[in-house]
Amino acid sequence: METDLARAWLRAAAAAIEVNRDHLTRLDSAIGDADHGTNMHRGFTAVLQALDGYPAATAGDVLIRAGGTLISRVGGASGPLYGTALRTAGKRLTGERPDPAGLAAALADGLAAVCRLGSAQVGDKTMVDAFAPAVDALRASADAGEDLGTAARAAAEAAEAGLRATAPLQARRGRASYLGERSIGHEDPGAASTALLFRALADAAARPAG
Ligand code: ADP
Ligand code: MG
């Protein structure tokens, strides 16, 4: 992943979050405290500001800067979780042109850090339920020799399937877990934002940088 692509990813992510801000907040009003869209929008607006004019030498620098911004600027649980994911992934993307396998390995590290920080596993009805299948799909595509655009599209589809699969689950982590069985029947807001982030990666990878 190149620096331009990392920047394009975060711009596409910020745009998608802006469009879906109210939808994310509606999901969070069903099983949380109705702030996920606001949290993500505040965070990614700050990320774009922090990257504006920032002299990043590698894609990793871009992701580390973005992650630190999310950690410091988002009050909800999602800020430190996404921030840690991006920072951890960024620390592995030190080369100038990591390939799809390198990106998959970096995001796998980011996912592992989220699971550690949040004590979450697949099936707990969190962002991990979209993040983990996306990383698996990215790795499988990379292993099959696909290019980054194809790999990222597979990851986005897997994240979206993971999101849909959160609806029938009972939450075991985060605020939604306080609802017990009443959390069943709603998609998880963080899984929804994760699906947006992977779709944004696919969109950015499909376009020439600019
Ligand atoms: P808060 O829950 O503090 O209001 P947000 O509403 O911004 O923060 O984010 C909620 C989302 O964060 C949840 O939908 C879930 O996906 C994710 N989340 C919350 N707690 C955890 C956790 N312990 N591990 C993984 N993800 C979590
Ligand atoms: Mg919330």
Automatic annotation (TrEMBL):
- Residues forming the DhaL domain are 4-203
A single GO CC term for this protein reads:
cytosol
Q: Which domain of life is it from?
A: Bacteria
Upper classification of the source organism reads: Bacteria, Bacillati, Actinomycetota, Actinomycetes, Streptosporangiales
Which GO molecular function annotations are given, in alphabetical order?
A: glycerone kinase activity
| The gene coding this protein | dhaL
UniProt xrefs under Gene3D superfamilies: 1.25.40.340
Q: What PROSITE patterns does the database record attribute to this sequence?
A: DHAL
Q: Which UniProt keywords apply?
A: Kinase, Transferase
Q: Name one GO biological process term.
A: glycerol catabolic process
The record ties this protein, via NCBIfam families, to:
dha_L_ycgS (TIGR02365)
Name the UniProt record assigns to this protein = Dihydroxyacetone kinase subunit L
**Record organism:** Marinitenerispora sediminis
